[in-house]
Specification:
heterodimer, A: mainly alpha, flat, B: alpha+beta
Chain lengths: 110, 138
C-alpha cells in the first residue's frame, strides 16, 4: 500500500527515473516497498568544510579537490559527498579552475 | 581604484631550460613593474604531471605568481606576453581579492560570534549553546 502513494512520475525529482542509487538517501519513501532493496536509512552526512570551518576553497589544492570528483573528472553531487550548498558552489568553482590549469582531469584519459 | 590581487599560473614545456623560464618570469616582472605592480611571490612548482594532454605533452613545468595591482589592464598585457612566449603552453589568471574579502568577513563574523558567547573557564573556541545562554554583559 505504501508503495503506491508516492511513486514519482517521469519527473526529475531527486532519485527519480533510471536505476536508483541504493536505498535511503534522497528517497522519499522509507525502508520497505519495491523501491529499495536495502531497508536502512543512511546516517546524515556532514559537510566536511563546515566542520573544518573553511572559508576559502583553494583551487590549487588538487589533492583535496580530487576527493570530490569521479575518476572520469565529473563533479560528485552533493548527496554523495554530504557537502552543504554553499560549499558545493565554491567547490565547483575551484574544481573548474583546477581543471582548466590541468591539475584535475576534465574526462577519462584514454 | 582599490588594489586587486591576482593569481597567475603558467605552464611551460617540460624540456624548457631553466634560463628560458627565468627569462619569461623576468619579462613578466618587467611588464608588471611598468604598471607599479607588486609581485608578492613567485613559486616554481617544477615538473608536474598534468591531468590531461596539452599540446600532446603529459608533463609541464608549473610556475605560480601572485600579484597586487591597482591596474586591471595589466592582466591583459601579461596574458598577451604569455601567449606570445613559445615555451608557455597554458596559463590561467584568477582574481582573488573579492574572495579574500569574503573570507575575511566570514572569519571576522565567526570570531565575533564566538566572542559573544560566554566562555567556560579553561575552554577555548565555541562554548556549548543550549542551556548555557547566560545574559552576557558586553
Amino acid at each position: 500500500m505504501a508503495e503506491e502513494t508516492q511513486r514519482p512520475q517521469q519527473s526529475s525529482g531527486p532519485g527519480a527515473g533510471g536505476p536508483r542509487p541504493g536505498g535511503g538517501p534522497g528517497g522519499r519513501s522509507g525502508p520497505g516497498g519495491k523501491r529499495g532493496k536495502r531497508s536502512y536509512v543512511r546516517r546524515k552526512k556532514v559537510c566536511r568544510f563546515c566542520v573544518d570551518k573553511v572559508d576559502l576553497i583553494d583551487y590549487k589544492k588538487a589533492d583535496v579537490l580530487g576527493q570530490f570528483i569521479q575518476e572520469r573528472g565529473k563533479i560528485l553531487p552533493r548527496r554523495m559527498t554530504g557537502t552543504c550548498a554553499r560549499h558545493q558552489r565554491w567547490l565547483s568553482v575551484a574544481i573548474k579552475r583546477a581543471q582548466n590549469i590541468a591539475l584535475l582531469p576534465f574526462g577519462a584519459e584514454i | 581604484m582599490e588594489e586587486r590581487l591576482y593569481d597567475l599560473i603558467f605552464i611551460c614545456r617540460p624540456d624548457t631550460p631553466e634560463a628560458d623560464v627565468d627569462k619569461i618570469i623576468s619579462t613578466l616582472e618587467h611588464a608588471a613593474g611598468e604598471k607599479q605592480t607588486k609581485i608578492e611571490k613567485t613559486e616554481k612548482w617544477g615538473r608536474k604531471r598534468m591531468a590531461y594532454r596539452v599540446h600532446k605533452l603529459r608533463e609541464g613545468y608549473y610556475v605560480y605568481m601572485s600579484l597586487r595591482t591597482t591596474h586591471g589592464e595589466l592582466v591583459k598585457e601579461l596574458e598577451r606576453r604569455l601567449k606570445v612566449a613559445d615555451p608557455v603552453i597554458k596559463y590561467l589568471t584568477v582574481r582573488l581579492d573579492e574572495e579574500l574579502k569574503r573570507q575575511a568577513k566570514l572569519k571576522a563574523h565567526r570570531e565575533r560570534r564566538a566572542a559573544r558567547r560566554p566562555r567556560k573557564a579553561g575552554a577555548t573556541g565555541t562554548a556549548p549553546g543550549g542551556s548555557e545562554q547566560a545574559v552576557a554583559s558586553s
